């Protein structure tokens, strides 16, 4: 596993996936972030009432996934 660190000390080969319950629609939502703080802020914003929940998962990307993500950002 690669442990490349960025300028802010974060590992470059991970993403942060947020799963949350949208209590208005009753659906489970998903969002992906490259920054942990942004993912945590988004998750916190989803906690609107006592039935709400949100989970932040750290997902380690493989080399092929990193290349695919980079190409998506360029396109």
Describe the protein's architecture and organization:
Helix content is 29%, strand content 31%. With 75 residues, it is an alpha+beta fold. It has one domain. The chain has a three-stranded antiparallel beta sheet, covered by helices on one side. The longest helix has 12 residues. The N terminus is likely disordered.
Q: How is the secondary structure organized here?
A:
Blueprint: E1 14-22, E2 27-33, H1 36-45, E3 54-60, H2 63-74
Antiparallel strand pairs: 1-2, 1-3
In short:
The protein is α+β, with helices and mostly antiparallel strands and 75 residues long.
Helical residue percent?
25-40%
Overall residue-averaged pLDDT value = 82
From N to C, what is the helix and strand string? EEHEH
Question: How much of the sequence is in beta strands?
Answer: 25-35%
Overall strand count: 3
**Distance linking N and C termini:** 27 Å
Largest sheet data: 3 strands, antiparallel
Spatial shape: elongated
For the record, the count of structural domains works out to 1
Radius of gyration: 14 Å
Low-pLDDT windows of residues: 1-10
- Number of distinct helices: 2
Throw out a few tags for this protein.
75 residues, alpha+beta, three-stranded antiparallel β-sheet, 3 strands, 29% helix, elongated, disordered N terminus
């Amino acid at each position: 596993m690669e442990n490349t660190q960025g300028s802010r000390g974060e590992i470059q080969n991970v993403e942060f996936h947020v799963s949350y319950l949208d209590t208005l629609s009753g659906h489970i939502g998903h969002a992906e972030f490259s920054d942990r703080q942004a993912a945590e802020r988004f998750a916190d914003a989803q906690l609107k009432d006592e039935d709400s929940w949100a989970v932040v998962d750290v997902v380690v990307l493989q080399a092929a996934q990193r290349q695919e993500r980079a190409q998506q950002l360029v396109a």
